[in-house]
Amino acid sequence: MFGDMMNMMGKLKETQQKIEATKQRLDTVLIDEKSNDGLLEVTLTANRKIKSITIDESLLEDKEQLEDYLILVLNKAIERATNINETELAAVAKEGMPNIPGMDLFK
Prior knowledge:
Elements: H1 2-26, E1 30-34, E2 40-45, E3 50-55, H2 63-96
């Protein structure tokens, strides 16, 4: 029993390391999102860090329109990044979870 517990602890530590490595890798996964008309483009990482924002000159004339564009495009990009992030981290966590009856957390 003690050996099983040590084995599980080792697996959990290994899974923790894999999760950290995945988080670091997700910093290199870039998500590009554009407005429908291409006037605004944002790029962020799968860890939801903004890398760049490109704004067409025509949007600089209307503050309210620019704000609306930023909200829409950033929200779409953040949603995509979150989906990628959660999928990747859940896969690593599921892979490293010990097989404990009744603990089907990642189905």
